[in-house]
Amino acid sequence: MKMKNQILFVLCSILGIATVNGQVKNLKLTKDFIQKNLDDAAQQIKVLAAETPNEKFPKTFENNKQVFSSSSWWCSGFYPGTLWYLYEGTHDRELLQKVEDKLPFLEKEKNNKGTHDLGFMLFCSFGNGLRLTGDTVKYKHVLVTGAESLASRFNETTKTIRSWDHKPWNYPVIIDNMMNLEFLTQVSKMTGNQKYYDLAVTHAQTTLKNHFRKDYSSYHVIDYNEATGGVIGKKTHQGAFDESAWSRGQGWALYGYTMMYRETKKKEFLNQARHIAKYILNHPALPEDLIPYWDFDKDKIDPSNKMYSKKDLRDVSAATLYASALLELSQYTKGQESILYLTKAETMLTNLSKTPYKSVAGENGGYLLNHSVGALPLNSEVDVPLTYADYYYVEALIRYKRLLEGQSVIFEITM
Ligand code: GLY
Predict the structure, then answer these.
(1) Which residues form the domain of 390?
(2) What pLDDT is stored for residue 25 in this prediction?
(3) pLDDT tens for residues 168-192?
(4) Is any ligand 1 atom within 6 A of the Cβ of residue 381?
(5) What number does the ligand 1 atom closest to the CA of 117 have?
(6) 199 within a domain of the structure (yes/no)
(7) C-alpha dihedral sign at 359, 360, 361, 365
């Protein structure tokens, strides 16, 4: 820390406020609160770890049963990533051992060219590993190979990375795919290969043009014509209906554009993130506790629709994404706007850290949070814990801890 910042930090600490990058912020959550939740999470994840077979990856806990996946499932990086964050937040070496034991079972996905989810799978896991240990021998080559696999899915005509390969889609791109761009920009930085950065920026610009409605809510899937690059369809596969605002999709968008502003400093991405934040935070269907329903348009579902009886479910996974993204966005904005994002993230974190969302110790299969929704229209993972909700919750706790310590929320990989 430079001398001027150090003096400012000491002064602010005395006055009970923290300073970040020269900005002075009122932080209402205490160090004890954040640490208690990190410590609770570290104990809780050991329950899940004890039940997780070596070669498997936690997905959810449903009907009192653990559900695991193989390494090729899009969520396989979240459990190792959560272990890394909790190791960072508690220095508990048992967690370090657990993540080091798990990663060899995930490494082969670096060669997987059949999915766009390699950022989730490899950057949350090996990326955090490289960041926290600096061990380039163990982790860097996995990231570099994985980024090349992801880049192989870029198409010059659609100017996007393809999300899914299955029918009936032609060339589908989902809003979730924004999250995988950080993997490319970071590998670009660590290798000096400009190609990855350029692909990520192009994908984000195309998505900005085609995925959003006038009110800045996002469709879930844009289906492209691979030959012409034209848009064939605009759909919302996991939401209430095509024109609805699926809550987690808005979270992928908010986080994605905030992160892409950090990575590129392009104002168009910052403005997009601010518009998305406004859409979410001003929405009349956002409940007072700021844990969103699974879809902002759930009240427009017809009573004859099979989803109707479950329309009022919350999606905790969306709230965790909002909290983590808003903490970051608060750092790129000023004055009342910055304070608004910080305050909203604090409310989300406070409410996520208690009943009914936070698990009772030792219960819920060792997951940290309950009440997420995977895909209600597909009747899949409905009102359950989800591995990615836990990941982004712990990420938000760590980001907040860093703010309390006068550090940046940004996780730098330095080699
Ligand atoms: N990426 C899939 C989901 O958000 O459910």
Answers:
(1) 18-51+265-410
(2) 58
(3) 999 999 999 999 999 999 999 999 9
(4) no
(5) 1
(6) no
(7) negative
Mutate which of 59, 177, 221, 238 for ligand 1 pocket (most atoms within 8 A of beta carbon): 238
Tell me, yes or no, whether 75 lies in a domain. Answer: no
Structure tokens at 378: 């597909």
Atom 5 of ligand 1, nearest CA residue: 374
Q: What are the tens digits of pLDDT across the range 322-349? A: 999 999 999 999 999 999 999 999 999 9
Alpha-carbon gap, residue 141 to 147, rounded angstroms: 10
Query: Is 117 a known active-site residue?
Result: yes
Residue 281 forms part of a structural domain: yes
Catalytic residue among 39, 135, 176, 390: 176
Q: What is the CATH number of the domain that holds 321?
A: 1.50.10.10
Q: Is residue 396 part of a domain?
A: yes
Tell me the average pLDDT of the chain: 94
Residue pLDDT, tens place only, 354-377: 999 999 999 999 999 999 999 999
CA of 92 to the centre of ligand 1 (A): 30
Q: Is 302 a catalytic residue?
A: no
Structural domain count, the chain? 1
176 lines ligand 1 (CB under 6 A): yes
230-283 per-position pLDDT tens digit: 999 999 999 999 999 999 999 999 999 999 999 999 999 999 999 999 999 999
Check if 248 has its Cβ closer than 6 Å to any atom of ligand 1.
yes
Q: Verify whether ligand 1 is closer than 6 Å to residue 238 (CB atom).
A: yes
